[in-house]
Amino acid sequence: MKQKRKSYYNPDWHKFAKTVRIRDGNKCLKCHRQEPIVSLQVHHKIYKPGLKPWEYPLSDCITLCKGCHAREHGIVEPDSGWILVSIEDLGDLIGTCERKGCGNDIRYEHVTYHPKCGYRSVGSTCVEHLTREDQFKSKEVIKLFNKISDFLSKAFWERRLTRKEKGYICTTHAHHQIRIYGKRNYYSFQIVLKRKGEKWFDFQNIINTRNTNLERVKELGYIALKGLISSDKEEKDLLREVYRRIK
What we know:
Blueprint: H1 2-7, H2 11-23, E1 40-44, E2 61-65, H3 66-72, E3 83-89, E4 95-96, E5 105-106, E6 108-114, E7 118-122, H4 124-130, H5 139-154, E8 158-161, E9 167-173, E10 176-183, E11 186-193, E12 202-203, E13 207-208, H6 214-229, H7 233-246
Antiparallel strand pairs: 1-2, 3-6, 4-5, 6-7, 8-9, 9-10, 10-11, 11-12, 11-13
């Protein structure tokens, strides 16, 4: 545990966290508040054994304020994401509200469920708080990060050689290719488009990157490809903005 804490004092972590915060517009993606009103932190949505905190793909991380971050880890009970399972009239004030900090006697028992907290029996007042919609959640942004993360975890990359015997790795997405050339800290990537029904490939420009690990380059390649093939203007604008912030 001590070693894990030390990781967050590493300059590489501070650089990584700054990139995530810039990508997210220096605001909490749950409540949209900014510093100095709140303290911003970077949250890892999933845990990957063997990776240092700054070695994760950026799409595995989001910017949260201290309060929303605590709720994600169950330190503070979440105020959104609950599902109402059932309601029962106990006939009298014989039940107890199980919401943290409440404990009031209740007659109408609302059984709620949260993926991180399990089941809670709460009263009429608290259930309105627990099941309210999070008005400030950036749904489209978080949906995009989930798509990127899903791609990175499922994509199959194979090693190939160019005609000049230059090695590269390649994956296919929706008939198109993402090619990555080079080695650690000196990677470049290229998008190769293949239109449906056409025999020929459309080779895009090779994009050079510096001081970037392989996972980040894969991420940039996917964002670039989605930006080229998407027909949705809002999605293209969002992809362009995310790419600009993390490149």
